[in-house]
Amino acid sequence: MMRCTRAVFGLSVVALFACGDETLNLVEPRISVTPEALDFGDGCIDADNIETLLIENLGPGRLDIERVEVRVGHEVFSAELMSTNLQSRVELELPVNFVPTTPKEVYESVLVLVSNDPIEPELQVPLSGVGGIREIEVVPLEVDFGVVNEGQAPTRAVEIRNTGGDPLLISGLTWTSTSTDLGPVDLPMGSIVVPAKTSTAIEFRYAPADLGKDSGLLRIESNDEDEPQVQVSVRGEANLAPRALAWICDKVPNEPGCPVDRRARSVSAGVGRVMGIDGRDSHDPEGDEISFEWQVVEMPEMNRPTLFFGTEDIRRGRATGEAEVPQVGRYVLRLVTRDERGLESFDTPESRVSVLPKDLEIYLRWDLVTDADLHLVRPGGRVGDYGNGFTGTSTGSDCSAFNRSPNWGDSMSIYDNPSLERDVVTGRGPEVVSLDFPEQGAYRAYVHYCDSRNVNTNMHAHIEVFVRGALVQRVPVMDGQRMLPGDLWLAAEITWDEATMQAVITEGTAPVESRPELCILQ
Fold first, then answer.
1. Cα 173 to the chain's mean position, in Å?
2. What domains does the chain contain, in order, with CATH numbers?
3. Is pTM, for the whole model, over 0.85?
4. Tens of pLDDT, residues 259-296
């Protein structure tokens, strides 16, 4: 019995020692680092290159880190950590710095962590790195703007990167090209320093104004030992806008547009005047087919939003057509052409034509659908003097239905001749007589109730006098009384002053005459 007892006691003692050893092991710390070695690769010269070392306590006991030191190798590596402790399963980040001083030099060292880990009291972490070099990278090496429309100016950027760890010196930037339309927006002069791991950019602009393709070459010179020169090619192709060339003229019968000898960019015309419009000189620099559109860009305010005159040919996009002035005033038309890409012509003086009001215009309006006539008699002339009645040659002093455009003033010029722009025989008007360069003196404006349609009804009428498009005076016929068929009324005397280019209007005071014969060509 005693031997068993002893045996049992002895076994108990062994078990107790075993339990005691296990208890001691459970409270020990265990240091661990991630990664087990730090490789900095290419580091920037004379600059901080930092990597992080993760320290962890894997044991149950508290880990006391007494110090961190770099023991072997260069002084380019450093790490600072004051004495600290880590509880079980706690992590700590340790920044490690690498400051290389010489390009391309390989650096190696050992970082030592001194702790109370009983198994590894001095944990060594290998450190390595290389002094970074200057390394140029240019992106992209080719810039293609493609087809660019005239009037546009897109930009593209070329990035010059220093992917190395040593400052990159750009010693020269040289640009050559086939056209000034293509080039850098602002090419730096002198040298440029690009710090490690940074970049700079050169911006290019393409604003084509010449026909054809354009190209250029940017040469970049640097202190990169392996690639001291880099070239960037830049190219683009112009699509020039079509050229819109517009002309206007007095309409020539059976002639489309304007004959070469009658083309103008500006004409004066009274209401009802028919003019030719011509855009046949327009063209596309590349030879594309072009389309046409006539736009009204200016008209008298009183007419808005009524569109300007024009025939179906113009509205359908033809190069030529006819136009008629609907209302006294100034009109400006713009011809717009488009190429096959849809690029629109520029708004230039050559793409516009103007219609200016005459110096003097007289309107006649009445209130019945009948035939009333307007007569403008030159100074010293007489009503009913139709001359031979032929346009441009008649010397008759009465401009009216039977003498529509007599030759007054300078016999060698047509520009000072009056014109009956509109003769209305079955409506309410207006009939219009217009005149440029009036002579000094008193013109007389008459209203004659012709009644060629035998309406045989009294009517009201009035005239309106315009000077260069501005209404100067409105005169009711016979002070508002009705006219009888055949009546002739002196509506107004219009005294023109050549010095001031102004008119003074005096209402007619002569008695009404019965002049039915004025409706008949004698």
1. 31
2. 31-131 (2.60.40.10), 136-239 (2.60.40.10), 247-356 (2.60.40.10), 360-519 (2.60.60)
3. no
4. 998 899 999 998 888 889 999 999 999 999 999 998 88
